[in-house]
Every structure is written in C-alpha cells, then in structure tokens.
Amino acid sequence: MTILYILLAxxxxxxxxxxxxxxxFTAAKACGVRVEEFxxxxxxxxxxxxxxxxxxxxxxxxxxxxxxMTGEDxxxxxxxxxxxxxxxxxxxxxxxxxxxxxxxxxxxIFCLFVSAKGFYVPVLSGFMEGxxxxxxxxxxAGDQFYSIDGHRIYHTDDVLTFLSRGGDDYxxxxxxxxxxxxLKDFHMVTLSYEGQENxxxxxxxxxxxxxxxxxxxxxxxxxxxxxxxxMVWMSLGQLVSGQVSVKDLSGPVGIVDMMAETGEQAETxxxxxxxxxxxxxxxxxxxxxxNLLPIPALDGGRVFLLLxxxxxxxxxxxxxDPRYEGYIHAAGMVLLLGLMAxxxxxxxxxIVRG
Length: 354
Prior knowledge:
The protein has helices at residues 2-30, 87-113, 156-163, 214-241, 252-265, 269-291, 299-316, 322-353, and strands at residues 35-51, 54-69, 118-127, 144-148, 151-152, 169-176, 179-187, 203-211. By secondary structure, it is α+β, with helices and mostly antiparallel strands. It has two domains: 2-112 and 277-353, no CATH class; 118-211, PDZ domain (Pdz3 Domain, Roll). The protein has a four-stranded antiparallel beta sheet with strand order 5-4-6-7, with helices on one face. The longest helix is centred in the last third of the chain and has 32 residues, at 322-353.
C-alpha cells in the first residue's frame, strides 16, 4: 500500500506543477505570445508531439515542467515574443501560474468539503471557577471566536496560538447569537486555578457545529485556503527570524514522502485519500505563494524586475536590454538549484534515517 501512496503522491505533485505551467501557457496563448514548448516533467524527453507552433512533451523526471516562450530572457525582433509584449501582458503571464495553483487548491478543498454535513467552529464551552473574564460585558459560554487582534480564528488551536503571542490586551471579535461582539483592549492574562498545575486563561474551548449549507461550504473553502496562506507566511517569518533553519525545509522528495506517510498512517483508505488531498491543497496554496516571492528566477522575482524595469524605462525613456534581466534570473536559478539540491539531499537523509 505504501508504494501506491508514493505513486499517488508523485502523480499529485506532477499535476500541481503541470497546472502551474498550464497557467503560464494559457495566459501566453491568450496574449498572443509564441510558445515554443510546453513540457511536463524535466530531463530526457519520453514523448513529444508538435501541434501548430508549439511542441508538447512529456519528460522523464515528474517533478517539474516548463513553458518555453520566444524571447523569454532575451531581446527578439519577433512581435509575438514575450519581451515584445506590454508590461501588463507580461505580468499577467507571470502571475497566471500561481493563480492556477491557488485555484486548484480551492477546488481540491471544496471537493473535500462537498459531502460535509457540518463544520466545527471554535466556541467557549465554559469557565473555570473564579475566572474573571466571564460576564455580560466580557466573555460568555457559547461565544464563538471570530478574530484576535485582527487574525481570523478558523480552528480551536488558533485561539491559543494568537493569545500566546505576547501582550495582555487583546482586540477580540466574538460571534454571539449570530452577531459580532467587539471587545476592544480586552485585558486577559494567564492565572493560577485550583487543580491546575500551570497558569491558564481560565476558559474551556470546545467545538460547536454549524450546518454545512452550500454557502458555508464555499466560505469554509475560502477560509481554509486563507488559513493555509497564513501558515505559509508564518513559516517564512520563522525561517527569516531563525526560529527554524533551512534544514527544516522540504522539497519535492520530502513532500512526496510526507503524503505517502500521511496515507499510510490513516485508519482507512478513505481517510488516507482525504488526508493526502488535504495536504495536496496545502501544497498547492504553498506553491502559489512561494512562486510570487520577489526572488530572481521565481515568478515573483520576474514580476518585481518587470516593475523595476518599467519604472526605469519611463524615467530614462530608454529601452533596457532584457539580457541583463536574464543574467539576474540565471544567477538566481543557480542559487535556487543549489538550495533545491541541498533540501533534496536533506530529505533523502531524513527518510533513510527514519
């Protein structure tokens, strides 16, 4: 069964990359850019077919892909070259891949929720004896956490996550009897309670259930995607701040192993498939965000340099040679490939060590 889960994970990862490149491809075609090759996978060609001006190919390594456009990184006299297009068209083509990844994530999440009968929501189920935060103008049993200091609360775990980030005064928004109740600068600290070893906030968190109407399924789909996005940004913040190291990163090998392990640990095949596709949705959203980071060689880096180039050209009234941008992306690609090689090796060592 493990082999089947590994094959499924490889297939899913390949689809995520294919969808990303298909976004670039469709946007390029819509903008009239000449696409020389649309490839799924990397390395040696296993199959190819030319249709019109574009060669479609399937390559040996199912962990990548590309959409090769005329004049992508160099000047070209071809009016249909990428560099010959207006700035807004080039930007549209560049962000289309990330957009398709995010859209795919939404579709996967909705498909997982489509048969749901109800959704759990974080609610206050009660208070410990002597808790000072209970009252008519404070917290009440049955209140649902909506946001803390502007951060939406999607799951019960989110409550303690954002209450433990420091500070004693919080801006709380609660849902009470279907209406939002705003508690501005609500003072709340952990206290000692009888029978408890550690200091606590003094309330019990439970999970209420709301009926899964079509509207709720759509809203929970969007909320889940936003929660995934927040997790990615928080992880990036931890990486920049040094709370986590580069060794904690996972690449394609690590992601495939994680999906397979998730499936293997599930009690039933249905649970395994649900967990694997839930993780696939997270990876899809993750890819969308990571690809838009302003790093050379990534789509976000290309968008950033496109904007910089556009500003410089409008100030100097001189056309910049796109080769210079190509050099920057080439250098970024070398560094990116080095990082990917390090992460892949680290993933392999981690898997072997078990």
